[in-house]
Design brief:
The protein is mainly alpha-helical and 262 residues long. The chain is 42% helix and 3% strand. Strands 1-2 form a two-stranded antiparallel sheet. The termini are far apart.
Length: 262
C-alpha cells in the first residue's frame, strides 16, 4: 500500500489547528502499566536508519542516504493525514507501539507533542495495511483501556540509543544509560563515588532544547524509567557498559576530563 501525504508536513500543530493533537498527553506517563519493556539496549552504534546520526535543529532527522532536504517530523495530526486515517486511530496505533516517536516537544497547551518520521509511517502503512481500515484488533482496543502507552518507553529507548552512538568514549556511553535511571538505581550499580561523579558530569540531557520551569515539570515524568522492568533493562546495559569502560580506562578520573554541567 502506497501512502502519499496530502498536505505539507509541519513539525508541530500546523497552521489553523486550534486544539491539541490527538496523541498529546496531559499527564505524561513514565511507562507505568507497560508489561513489555524494550528487549535490550545496544552499547554500540544504533542500527536504525534515523538513529545513525544526531538530530540537527529542533525537529529534523538526518537521512543517511537521502537527499539534502531532510524530511520534517510529523505530529499526530499530520501523521494521521499521511496515513489517511483519523487522529483517534493514529493515537491508538501509537500507544500500542505500532510505530515509535523519535522526538517530543511540550506545547503551549501544557501537553506533549510526539513527533514521528514520515518514512517510518509509510513503512508501517505498507507493512500493516489491515490496521488502517476496518475494526481495530482486540489488542489495540484493550491496551488503551488498561492505561498502556508505549510512546514514553519507546522514545526513551530510541533517544538513549542515539546518545550512546554519539558518545565519544566508553564512560560517556555508560553515562548515556544513566540519563534515564533514578539516582538510587545508578548508586546501586556504581558503588564507587568517583565513578558516579564522573558519570554525573558526562551524563547527557535527554531533551536538548531550552525549557521553561513549567515545561520541565511537564516532561519530568517522561525522563526516567520508573517501571521496574524497564529500569532493569537499563541497569543490565549499564553494568555491561561499565565493565567495558573499566577495562579500557581503569582510572577514569585521570584519563577522562569532562566539564561540569551548569
Amino acid at each position: 500500500m502506497s501512502v502519499t501525504p496530502t498536505t505539507t508536513p509541519h513539525p508541530h500543530t500546523g497552521a489553523g489547528v486550534r486544539r491539541p493533537p490527538a496523541d498529546a498527553t496531559r499527564r505524561p506517563s513514565s511507562g507505568a502499566g507497560v508489561r513489555r519493556p524494550p528487549r535490550g539496549l545496544r552499547c554500540g552504534p544504533a542500527t536504525r536508519r534515523d538513529d545513525r546520526r544526531p538530530l540537527t535543529g529542533s525537529h529534523r532527522v538526518p537521512m543517511p542516504d537521502g537527499p539534502p532536504e531532510r524530511p520534517t517530523l510529523l505530529n499526530a495530526t499530520r501523521g494521521a493525514e499521511l496515513l489517511r486515517i483519523g487522529t483517534a486511530r493514529f493515537a491508538r496505533l501509537a500507544r500500542a507501539g505500532c510505530f515509535d516517536p523519535v522526538d517530543l516537544r511540550p506545547s503551549r497547551y501544557r501537553v506533549i507533542i510526539w513527533l514521528y518520521p514520515p518514512d517510518e509511517l509509510r513503512a508501517f502503512a505498507e507493512r500493516s495495511p489491515e490496521l488502517l481500515t476496518g475494526p481495530a484488533p482486540d489488542r489495540l482496543r484493550t491496551r488503551p483501556r488498561r492505561g498502556t502507552d508505549l510512546r514514553p518507553v519507546r522514545w526513551r529507548h530510541r533517544r538513549t540509543a542515539r546518545l550512546i552512538h554519539r558518545a565519544a568514549d566508553p564512560w560517556s556511553r555508560a553515562a548515556a544509560l544513566c540519563a534515564v535511571l533514578d539516582p538510587p538505581d545508578v548508586a546501586a550499580e556504581v558503588p564507587d563515588r568517583h565513578e558516579r561523579d564522573l558519570l554525573h558530569r558526562l551524563r547527557p540531557r535527554l531533551i536538548d532544547i531550552p525549557l521553561t520551569a513549567e515545561q520541565r515539570d511537564l516532561v519530568a515524568p517522561l525522563l526516567t524509567a520508573a517501571d521496574p522492568d524497564e529500569a532493569r533493562v537499563y541497569r543490565d546495559a549499564l553494568r555491561a557498559a561499565l565493565r567495558t569502560a573499566r577495562s579500557v580506562v581503569p582510572l577514569p578520573g585521570a584519563a577522562v576530563t569532562a566539564a561540569r554541567r551548569p
